[in-house]
Design brief:
The chain is of the alpha+beta class. The protein is built from 16 helices and 26 strands. It folds into 5 domains: 117 residues, 2-Layer Sandwich (Wheat Germ Agglutinin (Isolectin 2), domain 1); 151 residues, Roll (SH3 type barrels); 93 residues, SH3 type barrels, CATH 2.30.30; 92 residues, SH3 type barrels; 60 residues, no CATH class.
């Protein structure tokens, strides 16, 4: 009975969403109208083509004018989340979004962009609307969380919880080490925008030393950068580093200069430097003129760079971690910071009663492939496909196979001048012992530039591994000798006396030509002893604290802090399994701290907020820096200014002194007494009696109320 009514409601909702899409297009037209005004898209039965509009006097066409003679089942991409699918399954007439939620989220983001344009001095668009005013950090946190809608938030930590008690700042200071820059990691969030983040950048951060009923802020400078972590120093401390503190650039706790003025927050200098500067306004003007600050859209760019096109329930092919020579079908179960938890679909290979085996890898990992890749390139595949365990919650969410466009394409390989052949010898990183570079042989040449490489000495083929010809894990003969790396020879040979010439003569084999290998070593920014966060590829669900032990061309030898050198691993400089310091805190992935008897615990600074009884300090309460004629200063804020601008006595407890000043302020601003009140016996002047009575009343309050 409710069918027609439900249909009408759905149609009305769709019409509203279509109106929002049209509003979004109008906003985009305002931004890019000059570009799109001379172009239209004509897509007929043939291929789509771009043509110029010859009718200059005609009204401005829409952004995309598309005409189809019949439905074309080609792949389209959602403009909000990046999900790919066929046009028929997408939402709205324009087919720009995969779902209603993405359409509405995109509309909300366009409104945020319009507000951002006004903050940058650009005229607002005609469709701009005012958003509900919420805290900056709340907005950024919600935006970043919304982009990870496919993530399993129940299994991932956030912020400081992801690092436990480990403090990167204290650890770096104790070790005296540097951290690799975010710009060294092409797959890391904000890598492309990291040139905007430099030392001496000015930001507004929470003033943790202020004892006031509400949060106040102060200006700080970035003294040192360590990945996503920044060591800050409040303005006024000059060269004094005793009060330096660490903060994450991805936490949402740093704001550009002017944020407090825009949001009505107070700027209060720390107590320790209050007396050092006589005129704070002039001091800040000299310090801030010509200085750089965070981009206004810094956190929006962070949220955009953390998008992941993979969704829970997608099918992929991934290397079997129990037998690296084959691949298995798997389903995406969790997405965290671009890292995927994959559950193998053929659950029959697991022992009964045991949990389904899984594997973690980055979405750009060479271990990950679209469904059908093995058969396409001729990969060895002895798997028997079976139906998944429908009772498992992961497999109840399976809805589609991943498409090839979601995966990172390997480097193009040209075969005109020769290519790898079966039986050629080379040096390769051992896939089951990543700290060793061994003598290896080309066992099979696949399609699309892929090779099956086997380590010499194992005859069963269980350690064959699929490498692309452009991989940096395969190396020409003599690479280890040239760079003073210990080569692991086949069984029966001593690495000290091993000779390539004798070995080739014994085996009657030849080596692969050196020009076939990709050994270019362009500047990458890594140096010895740099700190970073790295995946233990033998236990790929672990992200650990690591140190660059050696840099050899494009290869890095990583040492996991607290572990023996036997666990070191070779990785490429562009490996998606290495991350900047603070990456786990930004993405919410769990970080494994170094193993040791005295791990560096997090030093959380006490943040005195609200009413807390404190003892006297040797520093007066700081003054509040505000602009003259600020409309935000009401009577309550003027009272705070009065309390903060008058130094307190050093021998009286601070809370009682505040109450005494409050009593004086009330008595001086009290209306005159009535005649009946003036006839009462006076112990002194009216002001003195009022002050005495109020002060006595305050002193008579019980201690329980003071603690409250």
């Amino acid at each position: 009975e409710g069918g027609p009514l439900q249909s009408d409601d759905t149609d009305a909702e769709d019409d509203d969403d279509e109106d929002e899409d049209e509003d979004d297009e109008d906003e985009m037209d305002d931004y890019f109208g000059d570009y799109y005004s001379a172009l239209t898209i004509d897509d007929g039965p043939g291929e789509g083509r771009l043509r110029k509009d010859t009718h200059h006097g005609s009204p401005k066409p829409p952004i995309c004018s598309v005409t189809y003679s019949h439905p074309l089942p080609y792949t389209v991409v959602c403009e909000m989340c990046g999900f790919s699918g066929t046009r028929d399954t997408f939402y709205s007439k324009t087919k720009r979004f995969c779902s209603v939620s993405c359409s509405r989220a995109y509309s909300s983001n366009c409104k945020k962009s319009s507000i951002l344009a006004r903050l940058q001095g650009k005229p607002p668009t005609k469709k701009a609307k005012v958003l509900i005013k919420t805290a900056w950090s709340t907005q950024m946190g919600n935006m970043i969380a919304s982009l990870g809608s496919s993530q399993d938030n129940s299994s991932s930590s956030t912020g400081q919880d992801a690092t436990g008690n480990f403090d990167w700042g204290a650890y770096l200071e104790k070790a005296g080490s540097l951290a690799a820059s975010v710009a060294c990691f092409r797959h890391a969030p904000l890598c492309a925008q990291w040139d905007d983040i430099t030392v001496r950048l000015k930001v507004e951060v929470l003033n943790t030393s202020a004892i006031l009923p509400s949060k106040v802020y102060w200006i700080a400078s970035i003294i040192q950068l360590a990945g996503y972590k920044a060591r800050l120093r409040y303005e006024g401390f000059e060269e004094d580093s005793s009060q330096d503190f660490w903060c994450s650039l991805g936490s949402g706790d740093m704001y550009p200069i002017g944020w407090c003025a825009m949001t009505g927050k107070l700027l209060v200098p720390p107590q320790a430097v209050h007396q050092n500067i006589s005129d704070w306004k002039e001091y800040l003007m000299n310090r801030l003129v010509g200085a750089r600050t965070l981009p206004v859209d810094f956190y929006m760019k962070l949220a955009e760079s953390m998008k992941c096109p993979f969704r829970t329930g997608m099918r992929v092919e991934v290397v079997d971690r129990t037998l690296v020579s084959r691949t298995r079908l798997a389903v995406v179960d969790t997405v965290t910071g671009g890292r995927l938890r994959l559950v193998y679909e053929d659950g029959e290979q697991e022992a009964k009663g045991e949990p389904l085996s899984d594997v973690w890898c980055h979405m750009w990992s060479p271990l990950l492939h679209p469904v059908g890749w093995s058969s396409k390139v001729g990969h060895v595949d002895n798997m028997k496909r079976s139906s998944p365990d429908v009772d498992h919650p992961t497999f109840r969410k399976v809805y589609c196979d991943s498409v090839p466009m979601l995966f990172k394409k390997p480097r193009t390989v040209y075969m005109e001048g020769g290519f790898f052949e079966v039986g050629m010898k080379l040096e390769a990183i051992n896939p089951v012992n990543l700290g060793n570079i061994c003598v290896a042989t080309i066992q099979k040449v696949l399609l699309d530039g892929y090779l099956m490489v086997g380590i010499d000495g194992s005859g069963d083929g269980s350690d064959w591994f699929c490498y692309h010809a452009s991989s940096h894990a395969i190396l020409p003969k003599g690479y280890c000798q040239k760079h003073n790396i210990q080569l692991t020879p086949p069984p029966g040979y001593d690495w000290k006396t091993f000779s390539w010439a004798k070995y080739l003569e014994e085996k009657g084999a030849r080596t692969a030509p050196a020009q076939l290998f990709n050994t270019d070593s362009s500047g990458h920014g890594f140096t010895q002893k740099m700190k970073l966060e790295a995946v233990d590829l033998m236990e790929p669900w672990l992200v650990c604290v690591a140190t660059v032990r050696r840099c050899v061309g494009r290869l890095l030898l990583l040492h996991f802090d607290g572990w023996e050198p036997d666990f070191d691993q070779w990785v490429d400089v562009q490996s998606p399994d290495i991350y900047p310091v603070g990456w786990c805190e930004v993405t919410g992935y769990q970080l494994q701290p170094p193993i040791g008897p005295d791990p560096v615990a997090s030093r959380k600074k006490h943040k005195p907020m609200g009413k807390k009884s404190t003892s006297s300090q040797n520093h007066p309460t700081p003054q509040i820096l505000t602009k003259p004629d600020n409309p935000l200063l009401d009577s309550t804020m003027q009272l705070n200014v009065f309390l903060c601008c008058n130094p307190l006595s050093l021998h009286v407890p601070e809370k009682r002194m505040v109450k005494k000043k409050l009593a004086n302020f009330i008595s001086k601003n009290r209306p005159p007494r009535r005649p009946s009140q003036q006839s009462e016996p006076e112990a002194g002047t009216p002001e003195q009696s009022d002050h005495t009575s109020v002060t006595q009343q305050i002193k008579a309050e019980p201690e329980e109320q003071e603690s409250e």
